[in-house]
Amino acid sequence: MVALDLRDLAKYPFLKEAQSFIAANTASLDQYFESSAGRLAVKEAYDTVSASIRFNPRQPPEDLSEVPSEAEAVRIIISAYPASRLLVSCSGDKMLIDRLCRYQSWRVYRYLQDEDPKKKEVIAASLGLSGSSTKIPVIQYIEIASRLTDDRWRLVNRVVEKGIVRIHSDEIDEILRERLRVIMSQNLPLKVPPSLCISLQPVIDRIKTTIQERMLEEFGSVEESAFPPCIQAIIAALVQRTHLTHMGRFAVTAFMHNIGMENTRIVELYGHVPDFDLSKTMYQVDHISGQGGSGTEYTSPQCSTMKTHALCVHPDALCKNITHPLTYYKQKKRMVTVPKKKAGIVGSGGNIPDKESAPADNSDKQEKRNKVRGTAMEEGRKNNEDHKEDNQA
Ligand code: SF4
Is the pTM of the predicted complex or chain greater than 0.85? Predict the structure, then answer.
């Protein structure tokens, strides 16, 4: 069997050989992270996690660099892999964990594309697959392909013979990438000693700041005219004092929080409700936005959940191509803000009964308020167990 060198371990740090290398060269993680090399590894891990927040998870990362030739630099890259897993585990943020798994698996995919076939076979074998076979047992195929959204991965579009699924040779790397992502996801979060998390907390805080910055880049100021039909319908129901289900209230509150609206503004939405109770509403909004007891931030339900609860109302043409109201909002916002900027039009429109609605030319103020508030979250960042939302926005 072909031997892997140190640079290979830097490209594929999930391999047992890489973990053995770290174990052989590191006394304890606490001590290592105190050393100058350990601090560099944590810095590298921070860069990796930051890149995972910013990259487009539907395509390979653009920042993939050559593995350096100096042994110490290679060792830092290998050590950064477990360090990055510790960081996301300590953060307790499921979205961050998912992001890291996607980013790491895409990186591996990029390296695999130019890999020596013999080495690729070793990598594939470590994942329980072959690097050259175009046949996969159907059960394994389903596990791997179930999260791949492209129609070509659907079993009905595959040749299946005697429990074996055929894939094309140029799809093998994609299968390996997805298999790796699944394994990584299953193994995270790690159980990290609290003392280690405390020592990593300053880095975790920086990661959280990066997430907030990313969220602001993504959503920016609130653009009411970009609200999806379902959210507009719920707001209309609130204004008309129509009875709203618990899920309806949850959906609109989480949505508003996810796009960066301040809690006080969200509470004002409920001012028209006949049984409006300020302290109770404040409590519920704080709870959903993560400012209450558990600190968990909730994500608004995806379209399928909205449909199940009869909250998907008057879907329009844009709805055909999205699976989450937040995705609708992002796409629609792009469509409505660009023409406005070009035409120099101000004012936000929309239908929130709020005299303090942020106009389009007030985005800086709004963004500053969002920053101060410090709780704005990225879409899908907390996948809450109670509501069991599968974030796919
Ligand atoms: S398809 Fe989704 S975004 Fe569109 S109205 Fe229905 S729930 Fe809302």
Answer: no
